[in-house]
């Protein structure tokens, strides 16, 4: 098996993802800080902002998958980057003109979220086209490592820069990174073949085929249920976390950035260790184990109100980031090799619809509950939802499985290979 370090096209995809992820992490801190400190957003308004960032996954993910399977994926990725960069660039322009409003933030969040749907569906469908099947786990691990590095560098850098620059100006950095990302993507050489127009069927039929593949496979169905519930709770938390840290815990913007960076080191460790964890624990068992670990780690966020908030948040964030990345690398690699190439776009879109469709619901729910019962009780409700998320994979054959099936037995009603764990044995997304 050739090394991905020497794979030209994978390096371009990897570089693109790394650059855009760093910029994205800057915006993930700068945008809510801007809303809370400059525009005095309420918990409900923060919930609306979070919901609009992800509403497109619920509204257009399914047709987006069918469209991506009809289009050239590289062109989809480049176009999505350009749209996101242009939309974000309007924020510093409006700020400098003293015309920035929450309404504009809502609109930009919706536009960027829509472009992200197309980018994510195209991106996860493109990797199996660029690399060999045996390289998919390695490729996902490297891409998740870049994401984790960005989560370490981005928030900490943001916290430092927020001392000297306004949040809207920092968002301009993200706009520029999307342009750089598009340049790397344009350098990919692998031909991207699309089906002939004559072979296309009605859009509804193609959408149904992708959705049926996901919900019809017993293991995928349980993973999707787990992820959807975890995202529901995570989105409730995400809508209120910055507000909770700044107003209720009394942390500074710089400290919030440091907490996110220090905690995100866990994601970097998880990306590096994911393949080994899957080998030692067993690929199947890794999924429920990681789901439980994520739920337990999430309880640390509201516990920060009891004291030593910075330390508690860092430890909780570290453990949660580690568990999420290991879970993502494992389950995404499984479904990428499981799915026939012609269905990749629709499969990924169906999964995105089901698991990210809960994000806007969670954001709005977090905002509503935060207003009605308070921010801290809402965070505990979110912890309960994330604990519930682990049940579908715990109460499944996954907990007894070492190896997950591949394409040849993708439609098997039950796992075809279950073997006991071998402690110490060695060989996300």
UniProtKB/TrEMBL annotation:
Domain Major facilitator superfamily (MFS) profile residue range list: 219-429
Protein name listed in UniProt: MFS transporter
Alphabetized CDD domains for the sequence: MFS_MefA_like
Keyword terms: Cell membrane, Membrane, Transmembrane, Transmembrane helix
Coiled-coil spans in chain: none
InterPro entries: MFS, MFS_dom, MFS_trans_sf
Chain segments carrying region Disordered: 410-429
Superkingdom of the source species: Bacteria
Species of the source: Klenkia terrae
Subcellular location: Cell membrane
Ranges annotated as spanning the membrane: 47-68, 105-123, 165-186, 228-246, 258-275, 287-305, 311-330, 351-373, 379-399
Bilayer topology: Multi-pass membrane protein
SUPFAM superfamilies in alphabetical order: MFS general substrate transporter (SSF103473)
